[in-house]
Amino acid sequence: MRGFDLVGRYGGDEFVALLPQIDIQVALAVAERVGVAVRGTPVLHADEVIPVSLSIGIASAEDVESLIDLLHRADLALYTAKQAGRNCARAFSGDASVTTL
Fold first, then answer.
1. Which candidate, 91, 89, 90, places its Cα nearest to that of 38?
2. Within a domain: 21
């Protein structure tokens, strides 16, 4: 990620990343790199390796009136990723979703 990108915990096990000035395809590429890194870093607890899965929802700020609307779109994409079996990313794009990971 770039030095001016923002990442923060949104609640529970959800995080938000703000990637200004990139399009959906670049955001999907970033999501893929993050997914590879997370899946490649299992958690060790009590001498047991715990694999980690990651679902990612992506939305563009284009044609969005508020931050709440942007987060809602990303949340819709996230739930689409979770319904697809997790360990994937979905991008909100009108009525369609783009898949990666």
1. 89
2. yes
What is the distance between the alpha carbons of residues 21 and 17, in angstroms, rounded to a whole number?
13
User: What span, in angstroms and rounded, lies between the C-alpha atoms of 46 and 81?
Assistant: 30
**What string of pLDDT tens digits covers the 101 residues of the chain?**
788 999 998 888 888 899 999 988 999 999 989 989 988 888 999 999 998 889 999 999 888 899 999 999 999 999 999 898 888 899 997 655 555 55
- Print the domain residue range for 27: 6-100
What end-to-end distance do the CA atoms of the chain give, in Å? 17
According to DSSP, residue 1 is labeled: -
pTM, to two decimals: 0.81
In a domain, 1, yes or no: no
Rg of the chain (C-alpha set) = 14
Distance in angstroms (rounded) separating the CA atoms of residues 66 and 78: 19
